[in-house]
């Protein structure tokens, strides 16, 4: 492959950037509000109030659902990561899906159900076999992670914090917070951490949280048509991502307020705290 083609492939994801016109977005939101009130004026009073309550509750429903999904996703990644880390050293004879801690859960003294790779393969103690198995499994995990990200989701590379800051400032990166990026990021993070690479979950947790918030919000017309409201959900989801990484809901909200978002109204503060608390 020539140098020019390599350069084109490596920068292809930066070719279609756009920015949000906040003035136009605010005008669309005002027209939506005017249309909503005008439409309600033709309905009965009881139905009007029900619709208004629903329109106001959608914002809380979105951050609530996003918080639950962020917590579930992070929990699954933590479970898989622990299993992959222990898989470099041995295997559980009573269930290959169990890590060492749960395999030896009922063992008070010596654990006979957990076998290191030398005992599992040759039935005896061999430091060389343990070393080969450790290196081979770790290398396979790291290579699989690199293959998935390079071949299927280049936007999942890195922590994603810099891009999240740009998106919250009005920069549009298509596909960066999509469902496919979320899937590859989740798999890649578990494989990368489990392989023993010098990486952590904190930055990627923010990116995955924003992906979940974006996927949930775009199923509601109120957010799908308003970039400003999407930014509020992403800010809350980013706070939840930091919260699940460190177990600190208030710390996640403060991080989103101080380091990520350039626009953080009071209502976003409370929704971010709810999302972070539920996720944690």
UniProtKB/TrEMBL annotation:
Kindly provide the name given to this protein in its UniProt entry.
Glycerol ethanol, ferric requiring protein
Q: What is the originating organism of this protein?
A: Coemansia furcata
Origin organism lineage? Eukaryota, Fungi, Fungi incertae sedis, Zoopagomycota, Kickxellomycotina
């Amino acid at each position: 492959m020539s140098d020019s083609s390599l350069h084109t492939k490596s920068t292809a994801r930066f070719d279609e950037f756009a920015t949000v016109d906040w003035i136009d977005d605010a005008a669309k939101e005002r027209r939506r509000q005017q249309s909503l009130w005008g439409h309600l004026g033709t309905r009965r009073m009881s139905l009007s109030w029900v619709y208004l309550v629903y329109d106001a509750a959608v914002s809380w429903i979105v951050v609530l659902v996003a918080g639950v999904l962020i917590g579930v996703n992070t929990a699954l990644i933590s479970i898989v990561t622990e299993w992959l880390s222990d898989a470099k050293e041995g295997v559980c004879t009573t269930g290959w899906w169990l890590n060492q801690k749960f395999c030896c859960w009922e063992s008070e003294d010596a654990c006979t159900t957990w076998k290191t790779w030398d005992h599992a393969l040759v039935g005896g103690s061999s430091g060389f076999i343990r070393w080969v198995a450790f290196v081979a499994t770790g290398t396979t995990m790291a290579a699989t992670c690199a293959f998935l990200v390079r071949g299927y989701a280049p936007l999942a590379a890195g922590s994603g914090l810099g891009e999240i800051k740009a998106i919250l400032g009005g920069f549009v990166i298509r596909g960066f917070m999509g469902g496919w990026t979320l899937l590859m990021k989740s798999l890649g993070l578990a494989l990368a951490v489990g392989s023993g690479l010098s990486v952590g979950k904190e930055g990627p947790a923010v990116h995955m949280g924003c992906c979940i918030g974006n996927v949930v919000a775009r199923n509601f017309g109120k957010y799908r048509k308003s970039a400003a409201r999407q930014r509020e959900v992403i800010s809350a989801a980013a706070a939840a991502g930091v919260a699940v990484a460190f177990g600190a809901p208030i710390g996640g909200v403060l991080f989103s307020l101080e380091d990520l978002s350039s626009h953080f109204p009071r209502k976003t503060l409370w929704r971010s705290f709810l999302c972070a608390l539920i996720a944690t």
